[in-house]
Amino acid sequence: MSICNYINWFFLYSFLGYLLECIVLTVEYKRPVVDRGFGHGPFCVIYGFGAVGACLLLSPLSDHPIELYTASMTMATTMELITANVMIRLFGSFWWDYSHKPFNYRGIICLESSLAWGLLGLFFFNYLDGWVRTAVGYIPGRIGKVLAVLLTLFYVFDFIRCIRMRLGIPEEGEEGETEETIGRLKVY
Fold first, then answer.
1. pTM confidence score
2. Nearest C-alpha neighbor of 123 from the set 164, 161, 76
3. What is residue 172's predicted lDDT score, i.e. its pLDDT?
């Protein structure tokens, strides 16, 4: 795959992760949930990074389901733990809360989600990755390049804007962080 295909692959996984989060939380809370991820777009980039990490680190285990399940569970849980701790250091909060689930650690990780990450790893290698790679491969070359550049630019600018907003740095014409922004954070 070309670098542009990898970028589109990354963002497709980030989008699929966003959809997964919205569906799971909508079912769990019995009300529509669409405000997921760090930025404003429909992307949870932790899933893009998870897909990259899985391909780089877990591919040798793809034919060994028990080892793959255990490694997927461990890798994703570790990613959640590290991401939450970075967010706590930067913003004093993180964007999810497992404190109401049994066997959780400080609301950051929990057994239920860790077990689900293992299943997601099996699904990733047995079904999803082949489908995503095929889908990205169908994007014509020039369109794929433009799409990769646009997605990257959108996310970089949105990420910078969100960092500024989360740190309380007002944009021109604004006074600071809004109540809506504060409302979706778990203050730690």
1. 0.82
2. 76
3. 67
